[in-house]
Specification:
It is a single chain. By secondary structure, the protein is an all-beta fold. It contains no helices and 8 strands. The strands form 2 sheets. A 4-stranded antiparallel sheet has the order 1-2-3-4, with no helix packed on it. The protein has a 4-stranded antiparallel sheet with strand order 5-6-7-8, with no helix packed on it.
Length: 110
């Protein structure tokens, strides 16, 4: 059983070759946050500013986590968690024509 970041429930989505697990767990306030487990220790990856919910879907060999951060309006935002912190992937798009990335479901190692 994996520990949570303060709440009662959690869910693992992916495990890397290095044994790092990502998914989500409840905070002590009942919000679901993207979570990374290393050696059985849970780390809350948080959510983007103004967002209360997030869930991690994948992790690269380099430890970059792909997840979705969801706002109070139930709008998802594709997000990466790097050693520098959370990054909204929509900020990398040029002339998106109204397209919005809502979730980072998979990450390659290139």
């Amino acid at each position: 059983t994996l520990p949570t970041v303060g709440g009662a429930f959690g869910n693992a989505s992916k495990i890397s070759d290095a044994g790092v697990i990502v998914g989500w767990s409840e905070t002590s306030f009942g919000a679901r946050h993207a979570t990374k487990w290393v050696g059985g220790v849970a780390t809350d990856l948080g959510a983007l500013p103004g967002h209360g919910y997030s869930t991690a879907a994948d992790i690269s060999a380099a430890g970059i986590v792909g997840y979705s951060s969801v706002s109070s309006l139930n709008l998802g935002v594709a997000t990466l968690f790097t050693p520098s912190g959370a990054m909204n992937l929509n900020g990398l798009m040029v002339a998106s024509g109204g397209i919005s990335l809502v979730s980072a479901e998979a990450i390659n190692d290139n």
